[in-house]
Design brief:
Blueprint (H helix, E strand, L loop, with lengths): L3 H17 L3 H13 L2 H20 L9 E9 L7 H19 L26 E6 L5 E8 L5 E6 L4 H19 L6 E8 L2 H13 L10 H14 L15 E9 L6 E8 L4 E7 L5 E4 L19
Parallel strand pairs: 1-2, 5-6
Antiparallel strand pairs: 1-3, 3-8, 4-7, 5-7, 8-9
């Protein structure tokens, strides 16, 4: 049985890894962009990589604004753990408070009205915990993502008649607006949610931005084709790193979809900034832990269309 202590200790460890160490898939994407850029945009990209190296060497957060820490928990159907889901939530909240103090993370969480701040990134509905499940396994995956919570997100209710052209238009409108107004720290991983209800499309878009790796295509070949086309369009609007002139606004583009109302096509756009902060740990049934940077969140089970499920 997986103990509460192991869950808390593991969550604490990935909090540090996410805040300090840039995932290798994102870094490789930036290294590729450096080869194509020049001028100030190239200089900024190189400086970014030097900053990542310094953060790892000094064991300090890569960005002073450490975002809003949150968790994505995937529980194996055969997993046995102490205290049930309530105990997992408590362990994650305790790990967040401890990591905020120790790393340290900036205590960004305040009450929306009274601005109450507990200085630990814990409060009402904070940190967020998203749950999913996986058949036939006995492990628990915990992913933490530290995403900024102010800008870099937009939503629009499109309609079936808008089609692919409408998707492209909203995508470009959003990127141009964010770039001109300084509402995103690019190059960013852009996540797009299509379909579902309004709240679902927002969730899907954020997951697409934060929980897929650079270079990972959607398994649907037509969606993968659209992802690549949008990435190329985003890098052709004339904006580079941190708003300078260039061609490096989009490190990658990911799309996730959900079945929606027949009369609509809701769409959300989310930008996961150049401090691409995420880390994952798998807690095995015997209590051992393995760490990685690929959340592997969108499994075939997550994308199932059928009523039932067969391996």
């Amino acid at each position: 049985m997986i103990s509460n202590k192991v869950i808390k200790d593991t969550a604490y460890q990935i909090m540090g890894k996410a805040a300090i160490d840039i995932p290798q898939d994102y870094r490789k994407g930036i290294e590729f962009m450096v080869q194509k850029e020049d001028g100030l945009s190239k200089f900024v990209l190189k400086t970014m990589m030097e900053n990542w190296d310094a953060a790892t060497e000094d064991r300090r957060p890569m960005c002073a604004d450490s975002g809003l820490p949150r968790y994505y928990v995937k529980v194996g159907n055969e997993a046995k753990f102490e205290g049930g889901p309530i105990a997992i939530e408590r362990a994650l909240r305790e790990a967040t408070a401890q990591a905020t103090h120790d790393i340290p993370l900036r205590p960004n969480r305040v009450h929306p009205l009274w601005r109450t701040d507990h200085n630990n990134n814990v409060g009402i509905n904070s940190p967020e915990i998203d749950w999913s499940f996986e058949p036939g396994v006995d492990w628990i995956d915990i992913t933490t993502v530290h995403k900024g919570g102010l800008f870099g997100t937009d939503y629009r209710m499109l309609f079936p008649g808008d089609g692919i052209d409408g998707i492209k238009r909203f995508f470009l409108d959003t990127l141009v607006s964010f770039g001109k107004r300084g509402l995103a720290c690019q190059p960013a991983v852009v996540g797009i949610g299509l379909g579902g209800s309004k709240d679902t499309t927002m969730v899907l878009g954020k997951q697409a931005a934060c929980l897929r790796t650079v270079g990972e295509a959607n398994p649907d070949p037509e969606i993968a084709k659209l992802e690549q086309e949008l990435k190329e369009m985003g890098n052709d609007i004339g904006m580079g790193a941190m708003g300078f002139v260039g061609a490096s606004m989009v490190a990658d583009c990911h799309i996730e979809v959900g079945y929606t109302h027949t009369g609509g096509m809701p769409m959300s756009v989310h930008m996961f900034c150049l401090s691409s902060r995420r880390a994952t740990a798998r807690i095995h049934a015997d209590g051992t832990v393995t760490y990685r940077t690929d959340p592997n969140w969108f499994t075939p089970y997550m994308r199932r269309e059928t009523t039932g499920w067969e391996e």
